Structure formats: structure tokens, C-alpha cells
Amino acid sequence: MAGDDVSEQPHQPHILIVGAGFGGLGCIHTLGQLETPARVTIVDKKDTFTIGGTWQFVWTGRLSQDKTRWPLSSAALPPMASLMLNTSVSKLDLAAQKAILANGTPIAYDQLVLSPGVVSDGSRIPGLTEHALNLYCFDNVVSQKEQLEHFSQLAEAKVLASEKATLLISIAAVPYQCPVAPWEVAFLVDAKLRATGVREGARIVITAPNEWPLPDPTRPKFEAEMSAKQVEFFNNKQLAALEPNLAHYADGTSVAFDLAWAVYPQRAPDFVRDSGLVNARGFVPVDLQTNRIASEALQLLQIPAMVKAGTSHVPYCIGDCCWTMIQPELPHPKAGEFAWQMGANVAKQIDATCRGEALPPPDKRKGSCFAEAGNGTVLLLEPDLSAVLADPLNGKPDARVSEAPEAAKVEWVNKHLARIFNGSVAPFIS
């Protein structure tokens, strides 16, 4: 009978995105714009979204912490997407194309996009977790504010004694998230101490394990700013160990401090590391243009069938968790805007695969990084990797740095909140 003639519905591939940060949200946002014929599940261990560039408003006393996080349940997701919050992945079975949740539930997928961010791992440096606050931890922001208030009081006492208290800001390993952040921290502390009239009682010292953690074109501007603010910088200082009030470096030197804040070594989360996908630095190696996990990583795991079958089922890794190089042997910078753009690029590749079309060329990749410099100003760093993506062997990265008002940073935050939440949360106001 005609009424019994039901056409078979085509199979819709299932895309699993692990992580609802900038990268994962950029991916689902673009899949929705493209109306990709697929089902999408997004898993995140948290239920809120935050932007690290807003935390400074908390520890400098301008905002309360609750003003710098937003409920992921309010994110404007396309109908194809389902969101699993407060849900952790404990294991990846790449051969079977399954992710195992912490409660033991398996989730099968046709395409995997890893965007879980990174974790800070202080265990690699003796004494680091005991004696230095981790600058890249949302839960530490209130403690950071309290420590700064205490340090300011100490600096006041040092002024009276014609001495100086030392704040040490140590970058323990590169690469790391938001490369300008240590300088922003130093400049804001400088402004805070000057505002209370106790700057003469303090030293502010930044150390880094390499020559210069930011793009080379930025160096003159940042060095001029450090000179004007009397911020000391020591490069090629690999942090080796900390003890109370003393940091030791691999070259045998040391720095005495009264307060230490640090960029802890960062790596992929445990479930990614335990899958065997990471390199010696703790990140997942990927192709620069596509963000597909490098074939050698899969072959080492004895999953050659996935590689031989073509690219359609090779997993992707985007954002801070991934590792890829730009010439001449520089790690790709880790920043939220780059993660979003990686996610969008991956979404376009997945969409083309779902439709049986040719893969698109990589998009442009240009970011905006804001380092607040105090007194309502910021140093705006604009790295541009577009030429590198277009021609990985010969393309050169570019970077520009300029001065801008603090309002430019607030506008940048609100641009992303509008993209992610589409008006369902209040704008960020400094």
C-alpha cells in the first residue's frame, strides 16, 4: 500500500565535542550557521563559561567574581546540539570511536572534536604548588585579591623602612594560555601600588624560561612599558624549585620574594594524556591547517586503520590542548580567540565531509590580546597567522602592538558574549 511506503531517512553522523570553552563553542556555533546535517553532543565538566581576561577586574577590586562567569545552560545553541554539563570524560577509546564518561556511560561518535583546554600541573617543579599562587585558576582569583592587599600593606611598611618587598611573577613553562597575562598582572599591580602611594616599597619581577614569550615585534613596546613602570624582567630563567621566599633557577641563580605568583606548567587533561595522544610537552600534536590529530600520534597507538581509511574519521583537537608549530619553529600561541577560530575552521571541514564536498582552505587567523597597563589603558597585541596557515612552509607570522582604552577590552568581551549567548546574559560592564 502507498501509505506503507516510508522512505528510509539518511544516517546523520554524530559529532562529539568535548569541552564548551572558546574552541568547542566556536565549533558548534559555526556548525549551526552552516546547518550541517549532523547530530552534535557537547560535553563539559563545568556548567559555567568564563573569560580569563575578565579575572583582573576581580583581583584588582573592580568587580565581584560572579560578574565574570556565565551559565552555559543559557548558551544559544542550534537545534542539532545537545549539551551535557557537569559531565566528565574519563577515557577515550579511539579505535572503537567511543568516549567513556566518568560514570561509565559510553558515547559513540562518528567525529570527535577535542577542546578540553589544559590543566595546570605544578607537580613538575618542587615547591611550586606550596609557595606560588597559580595565576591561571579561576578559583584562585579571590585569594589573589587578598594576597595583593597584604602585599600592599607590606610595601607600605617597607617604604617607612627604606626597603622593598618583592613580587615574583614566574613563567614556569612555555607555551601557556594568554601569553600577555604575566605582563598585564605586573602592570596592574604597579598601578594599584602607585594609587595607594606605596610603589617605592616594592619590586615587581617577571621571569621567563625563554628569550621572549611574546611575538618578537612586541618586545620594544613592552620593554618600554616595563622600564616606565620599573618592572624587572629576567629571561632564559628556567624555574627549578621553590622554597619559602626563594625561587631557584636551572642556571644556579635565585630570586628572593615576599609573594610569588606563577604560570604553572600546562598540559592536556588526564583523559587525553592517558589516551596516549600527547607529545613530550603534554599537548596533542595536530596539523596546522586542519587541526586533525597528527597521523604519527594515531600510528603510535596502533590505530593505522583510521589513518589509512582517509581523513573523515580522524579526530580533531583545537584550542589550548593542541600543539602545532609555525615557522621558524615557534609554538602556535594559545588564546581564546584562536581557539574559536580553530573551532570554526574544523566545523567547516566537518560540514564539507558530511556533504561529500571538497574540504575548504583554512580561514584567516588573527587575534586580539589585551594587556591592561593601568589607569584605564591597555596594550593591544594583534598577532596574525593567516599567511602561515595559507603557506605553512614559507608564510611568516605578523604581530602589531598599540595602545587602546580599557573600553576596547570590555567591547571585545561583549562581542564574544553576544556570539555565545545571543543576548540571554547581561553585558559585561567594568
Structure write-up:
The chain has 430 residues and is α/β, with parallel strands linked by helices. The protein is built from 12 helices and 27 strands.
Q: What is the domain total for the residues? A: 2
Radius of gyration: 23 Å
How would a crystallographer describe the biggest sheet?
Answer: 5 strands, parallel
Structural class: alpha/beta
> Into which percentage range does the β-strand content fall?
25-35%
Alpha-carbon distance between the termini? 67 Å
Query: What would CATH call the class of the largest domain?
Result: Alpha Beta
CATH superfamily of the largest domain: FAD/NAD(P)-binding domain
Assembly status: single chain
Helix content: 25-40%
Q: State the helix count.
A: 12
Structure summary, number of beta strands: 27
Low-confidence stretches: 1-9
Mean pLDDT: 94
Essential attributes:
430 residues, FAD/NAD(P)-binding domain, five-stranded parallel β-sheet, 12 helices, 28% helix, globular, SQRD, FAD/NAD-bd_sf
Secondary structure topology:
Blueprint: E1 14-18, H1 22-34, E2 39-43, E3 48-50, H2 56-59, E4 69-71, E5 81-84, E6 89-93, E7 98-101, E8 106-108, E9 111-114, E10 119-120, H3 128-131, E11 133-134, H4 141-160, E12 165-171, H5 181-195, E13 202-207, H6 219-229, E14 231-234, E15 239-243, E16 246-249, E17 254-256, E18 259-263, E19 266-267, H7 270-273, E20 284-285, H8 295-300, H9 304-308, E21 316-317, E22 322-323, E23 325-326, E24 330-331, H10 336-354, E25 369-374, E26 377-384, H11 386-390, E27 398-405, H12 406-421
Parallel strand pairs: 1-2, 1-9, 2-5, 9-21, 11-18, 12-13, 12-18, 13-14, 20-22
Antiparallel strand pairs: 3-4, 6-7, 7-8, 10-19, 15-16, 16-17, 23-24, 25-26, 26-27
Helix pairs in contact: 1-10
